[in-house]
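[job 4471] stage=fold_predict status=RUNNING
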Amino acid sequence: MKKAVCLLSGGLDSATSLACARAAGFETYALSFDYGQRHRIELDAAARVAAHLGAAVHKTIRIDLRAFGGSALTADIAVPKGRRTEQMCAGIPVTYVPARNTVFLSIALAWAEVLGAADLFLGVNAVDYSGYPDCRPDYIAAFETMANLATRAGVEGAAHFKIHTPLIDLSKAGIIRLGLSLGVDYSLTHSCYDPADGLACGQCDSCLLRLAGFAAAGVPDPLRYAAQSPGAVKG
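[job 4471] inference complete, writing structure tokens
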């Protein structure tokens, strides 16, 4: 089996992306990051998802992005709550972590080169997303070009690196339907930016997008919430 390094946050999208890699016949190597995020609970979810979906190896790398801050996820900045979709899409939100996907993909690329793997999977989405610049197709294409210029394997022709983004053109409802068809257990995932006592807040951008996705898919969201938006489908 060919090997693939799969970025796994523990959220809905990354779990579905990992399932896509497995369904495509890859032996999966899951990679998570403890980067000082306020929603560190997602790492427990990542471990559950990696085990559930049969990752050959699951590594968690520790880096301290709180040393820079600059984001509501890595500094003492309030997480926006109760925003409408048009507000989420109006600009780059304060939950954007500077250069996060570039840092994560660079480390994933290093591991892939050591493993002899040419494939990386990333659960970014350009449809139902929160305005992050490092989730766009042109960013992914640019990083893939860089990966093949900046590595020994790429320069010597031992590998041609490919970044797979199987969710890039799907709505959140489409992602959920795809994941369910691939056997993803979404009760194992966690998406909230500002959880408390193990419960998702139900009001941050990530929770609202997730709840709207399950509502549109007509499927109950198995995640436990402290509060839910009026349109949420309740389990």
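[job 4471] summary: The mean pLDDT is 93.
[job 4471] exit 0
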